[in-house]
Design the sequence.
């Protein structure tokens, strides 16, 4: 009798066991964050970029392909980012004519355009599509497997955009070369 129950329990553990432990497995930032959280983190993290932190005056953010994020960022107008102040948020579907201080990409189909634009104009690129950081966007915000926010920083892209990060940011980000 004991031998009869044992194979059934073993099979049940083999089939059901991995499903029970799946949520506990760590993974890279795979999900986009809620727009409100992303907006708050973008405003806070931008202050770690020394060029922005020392820039007095108006700061503008251009959001491409993420209207809900643009809506949440508009609520942050007036907030300080380093020595400057967020004055304008533009929601557009393609590269803007007026050069903003920060470009936030929510549409992966515009990746090559945004990369060229931010490198040519030496401005910070940010995304809420976590996989785009490995593709060349400088700063990415996502939700990890533990359902907590994760911030990823691409150092190569940062150099190409002439960004100068405060070393304190390295304590809170995952680095991608």
Sequence:
């Amino acid at each position: 009798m004991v031998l009869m129950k044992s194979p059934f329990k073993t099979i049940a553990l083999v089939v059901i066991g991995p499903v029970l432990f799946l949520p506990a497995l760590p993974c890279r930032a795979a999900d986009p964050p809620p727009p409100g959280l992303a907006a708050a983190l973008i405003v806070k993290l931008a202050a770690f970029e020394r060029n922005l932190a020392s820039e007095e005056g108006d700061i503008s953010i251009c959001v491409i392909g993420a209207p809900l994020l643009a809506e949440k960022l508009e609520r942050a107008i007036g907030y300080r980012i380093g020595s400057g102040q967020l004055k304008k948020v533009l929601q557009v579907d393609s590269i803007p004519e007026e050069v903003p201080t920060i470009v936030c990409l929510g549409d992966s189909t515009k990746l090559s355009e945004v990369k060229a634009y931010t490198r040519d104009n030496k401005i910070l690129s940010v995304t809420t599509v976590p996989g785009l950081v490995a593709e060349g966007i400088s700063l990415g915000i996502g939700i990890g497997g533990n359902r907590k926010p994760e911030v990823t920083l691409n150092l190569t892209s940062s150099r190409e955009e002439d960004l100068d990060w405060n070393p304190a940011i390295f304590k809170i980000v995952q680095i991608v070369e």
Notes: Residues 39 and 73 are 5 Å apart (CA to CA).
